[in-house]
Fold each of these.
Amino acid sequence: TVGCLPEIIKDGETGFLVPPKNPSVLAEATIRYFKDNKKEEFTNNIKKIKNRFSWKYLTKAIESFD
């Protein structure tokens, strides 16, 4: 949960957010990712929202300020 990651990552949907400097929570999240086979779910969810972070989306948002 550092920088802008909490604004981009949806915890449990597109990744796991863990507090900084907490290796045990990071380890738990890593184990959960593999144990629960989250790769496909996270990948599909990321594909659904990735356009929000494209240059095309950004330029349209800027142009809409008129």
Amino acid sequence: MTAHPPRKTPGSDRPLVRKLQQFLALTAAEEAALRGLESVVRQAGPRHELTTEGGASGTAILLHKGWAVRQRTLRDGRRQVIDFLVPGDFCDPSSFVAGRRDFSITAITPVTWSPVQPEDLLRLLSGSPRLGAFFWWLEAREGFFLRAHLVAVGRMRAEERIA
């Protein structure tokens, strides 16, 4: 997908819309559908878990304000940060496929976020196959970065990782 210059539209104050507009010129109907994912908005403070590792999966997280981390906790209590989440990130939209969540999401600053239920996401995707293809592309892109990071951590020397 090629980048398009961002348009100034009424939805541009929404981080997800702004993020998607970097890659795709959204129609007014698509922007309205994306706003529908924000029907419930919650707030949390630093160190608050938005999702819990090992808990039932099914709800995706749409971050509006603040920063969070996706992490896994090892049996001995150490944790591994998988990635940082910033406004506009739509974390784990395919979460309803798995039975249990294999990570937690924890706020590291005050955050505003929306839980997105599978039926809401499926309604959005069935109403806009173009957005569905784009979310699929975003998931593939995230997988690409995750694999690159895995190779860097697993096989590169410290000097190579820093470079």
Amino acid sequence: MLSAMLLARFVNWAAQRVTRRIDADFRESDALVRSEATKHRQAVASVISWVTIALICVMVLVEITDILAIPISSLVAPAAVIGAALGFGAQRIVQDLLSGFFIITEKQYGFGDLVQLSQAATLDDALGTVEDVTLRVTKLRTSDGEVFTIPNGQIVKSLNLSKEWARAVVDIPVPASADLNQVNEVLHKVC
């Protein structure tokens, strides 16, 4: 049991270290947005750590049944009944996990992207920067600082506003009497 806890902590530590290393490469560069590969790597690292910890928990449960000498064959019938009940009750979770799997593998959006997500349950769209993408949920931070946690199975449409490139329109008021050649030169130097 102690070794499983230590292993889970190690997996969590390793995932955080990988995420920090990915993020450090971005912070050291002069890029304004993360590359698509970086965003995808960060999402995959999060999913791998989550799945690894889930597998460790399952292995611990199997070991506990072995230590307590509980015959697995006697658990088949109750497990079938419980499995059927959970199957009906866990449809949403399975839907969230499958949707999250496809979001990550299709690289629809990643950490740091500005996205607008349409949800099945509400008429409102969620607009914000992706803070976390897991198999089950996507977390968005709005410009007001609020955090949306959206189950991936509820996402009907995703609009990525910053995939691979983005455009910003900046209005600069210029008086009618200004020399346009000089204005263009100044703008080119600033940009």
